[in-house]
């Protein structure tokens, strides 16, 4: 009897302490303007925007809501889905205004945070004005995976630390569900900003799919189907620090219009040294981008693999010590011909320092002007055309031998 009374007393005291702690967190959250809390304990893992309750007990995450992580560390993954903000009132998911959060899972887990079927939201680590990046995601196969018809979102100021494969993934893979097919879905208005990303075997940033120029095969109810992957309209990849990646540092595919890749730092890329997957920045089929002001250093592949539909403007990038070459410039090759126009590239005012192979490998028409190339190799080939029929106009390029601008 005495033992039973003691046990009841312990449970009662624990309940009181838990209640007090929960109340304290709610007070702090309200002080930060938070409408909802994601507890630091692992008991809560399913955040459904249709049913998740606010601090005040209101069911659902309404447009304009501010969903805050309780400060601290947790070791359980999160599944966030059915978030539905609006263009005028996006949903904000962030750290507390006076704290930081760290979520760490095993690299064998599928991910740290998965977000699907969501739109008009921001996942931001800038909730605390005194901390540049207040959310850290460690481990998982893909640390952050934004997928399954998600669109119109911003991911900013996160630390992504050593996932098993990719750091930040943003795409919808085609399935037998017609909603995932190109003719029915376009990912729009995606912003990936000011994140610090380290990966394992895969890409740092994997945005969009990789086969826009062709179809992928699926067997649906016993019937083989050829399905086109979705496009991206409206993309900004700015100010990210991407380093020590097994494959490409930044990979973008299917970004057919209004796409900007700028002011990123990509270092030590392609450590796995897998052919075709080891560039600093990889511009994949279908893409038409403005790629400017990026610093790219030390990798096993090309500094920039400029593929896509052409019409891309690639300027003011600094590329050094890329083992395969500074930049490869090539248009999409589509089975049976591309269902979209292919146009020349514009390559302007890039600085290339001591990249192996050639500074520019050219496989398609384009114009180049005012680029600066330097190498310490006595037999260096500054620009290498795939064949003599390539229409390539180069003016004002400055070439140096044995001049090291930077070590």
List keywords for this structure.
single chain, 407 residues, Pectate Lyase C-like, twelve-stranded parallel beta sheet, 1 helix, globular
Explain what you see.
This protein is mainly β. The chain has one helix and 39 strands. The protein has one helix at residues 2-31, and strands spanning 36-38, 46-48, 66-69, 72-74, 78-81, 91-95, 101-104, 111-116, 119-124, 135-138, 142-147, 151-156, 158-161, 166-170, 186-193, 196-198, 205-207, 216-220, 223-227, 231-238, 241-243, 250-252, 255-262, 265-269, 281-283, 289-292, 295-299, 302-306, 313-315, 318-322, 325-329, 345-348, 351-353, 358-362, 366-369, 372-375, 381-385, 392-395, 398-401. The longest helix has 30 residues, at 2-31. The chain is globular, with a radius of gyration of 24 Å. The protein starts with a helix and ends in a 6-residue tail after the last strand. Residues 9-21 have low confidence and may be disordered.
At the third CATH level, what is the topology name? Pectate Lyase C-like
- What structural class do helix, strand and pairing data support? mainly beta
Using only C-alpha atoms, the radius of gyration works out to 24 Å
Low-confidence stretches: 9-21
What CATH architecture label applies?
Answer: 3 Solenoid
The count of DSSP E runs of length 2 or more, i.e. the number of strands, is: 39
Task: Give the mean pLDDT.
Answer: 92
Number of domains in the coordinates? Answer: 1
């Amino acid at each position: 009897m005495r033992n039973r009374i003691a046990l009841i007393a312990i449970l009662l005291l624990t309940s009181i302490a838990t209640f007090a702690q929960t109340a304290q967190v709610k007070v702090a959250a309200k002080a930060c303007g938070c409408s909802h809390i994601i507890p630091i304990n692992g008991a809560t893992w399913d955040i459904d925007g249709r049913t998740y309750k606010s601090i005040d007990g209101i069911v659902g995450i309404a447009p304009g809501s501010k969903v805050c992580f309780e400060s601290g560390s947790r070791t359980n993954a999160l599944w966030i889905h059915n978030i539905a903000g609006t263009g005028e009132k996006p949903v904000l998911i962030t750290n507390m205004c006076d704290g930081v959060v760290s979520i760490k899972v095993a690299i064998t887990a599928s991910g740290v945070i998965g977000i699907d079927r969501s739109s008009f939201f921001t996942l931001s680590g800038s909730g605390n004005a005194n901390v540049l990046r207040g959310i850290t995601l460690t481990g998982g196969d893909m640390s952050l995976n934004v997928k399954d018809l998600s669109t119109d979102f911003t991911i900013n100021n996160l630390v992504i630390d050593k996932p098993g494969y990719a750091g930040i993934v943003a795409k919808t893979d085609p399935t037998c569900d017609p909603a995932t097919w190109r003719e029915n879905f376009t990912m729009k208005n995606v912003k990936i900003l000011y994140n610090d990303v380290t990966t394992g075997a895969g890409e740092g940033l994997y945005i969009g799919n990789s086969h826009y120029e062709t179809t992928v095969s699926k067997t649906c109810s016993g019937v083989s189907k050829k399905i086109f992957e979705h496009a991206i309209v409206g993309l900004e990849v700015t100010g990210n620090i991407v380093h020590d990646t097994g494959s490409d540092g930044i990979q973008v595919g299917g970004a057919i219009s209004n796409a900007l890749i700028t002011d990123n730092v990509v270092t030590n890329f392609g450590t796995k040294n897998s052919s075709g997957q080891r560039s600093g920045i990889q511009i994949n089929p279908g893409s038409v981008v403005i790629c400017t002001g990026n610093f790219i250093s030390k990798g096993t592949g090309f500094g920039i693999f400029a593929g896509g539909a052409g019409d891309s403007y690639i300027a003011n990038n600094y590329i050094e010590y890329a083992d395969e070459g500074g930049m490869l410039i090539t248009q999409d090759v589509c089975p049976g011909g591309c269902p979209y126009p292919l146009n020349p590239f514009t390559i302007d005012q890039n600085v290339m320092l001591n990249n192996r192979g050639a500074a520019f490998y050219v496989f398609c028409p384009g114009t180049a002007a005012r680029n600066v190339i330097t190498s310490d190799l006595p037999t260096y080939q500054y620009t290498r055309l795939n064949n003599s029929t390539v229409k390539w106009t180069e003016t004002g390029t400055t070439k140096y031998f044995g001049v090291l601008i930077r070590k």
